[in-house]
Amino acid sequence: MIIGTVMGSIFSTRKSEKLVGNKFMIVRPEKTMAGNGNDLIAIDIIGAGIGEKVLVATGSAARIGCDKADAPVDAAIVGIVDEGQDGMEVISQ
Asked: In angstroms, rounded to a whole number, what is the distance separating the alpha carbons of residues 87 and 71?
């Protein structure tokens, strides 16, 4: 799982039938997280907003976490970060 910031949303009028009705967001992983540092597209099952810090599950955990085991999902926003330790700022209202 990684922590990232929602940078924006993606709209697609043509997509796999298994993805119809879902919202997709652009997530920028924190620099301290593993990975190549590139933004990713994640299915949003919890209603995250632009600018929020989120938890993103990837790979098969993403499909399981969003109840889409047979859909082409590689990343899913599964939580919104309210606060953290080691220097992460509190973002809850």
From this structure: 36
